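Researcher: Next entry in the queue.
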Amino acid sequence: MSKTSKFENSVIGMQGNLLSFALKLTMNKEEAQDLVQDTTLKALNNEEKFAEDTNLKGWLLTIMRNIFINNYRKSVRENTVVDTTDNLYHVNLCQDSGLSAPDGAYAVSEISQIIAKFPADYRQPFSMHVAGYKYEEISQKLGMPLGTVKSRIFFTRQKLREILKDYR
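Model: Structure for this entry, 168 residues:
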């Protein structure tokens, strides 16, 4: 048996373990099966990166976890609009925002007004962070040092908590 077919058989033998882990991550059978398929394909395409003395199960589960996280981040980015307007006309919200309830719309409006009062240097990184961008991506897009981005997001979050502390 060649090294490649031995590796392929080992990966295929782990399908049950992969499906079990994928179900824990996705909580959906069809998505879990897709995740197992993506993981298997990636593992087989990257056989040369697998070291013989490495735990195959651990390696495969790490690949799966990374695929899951990357897919999640991609879906967050695709479903979010970053509002860079001065008056925050577009609000960065997920689909189930509570806007259908009158009190939910009021809360969003009030929070948007509060955020709109922050200086643009703080508002913009915060809006991007809420939209799902990673600190490094925000730093690159805005041309700011990474530490500055992190501190401005932290400051904005703290200020928002302070302003909304009595808010229910």
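Model: The radius of gyration is 22 Å.
Researcher: Noted, moving on.
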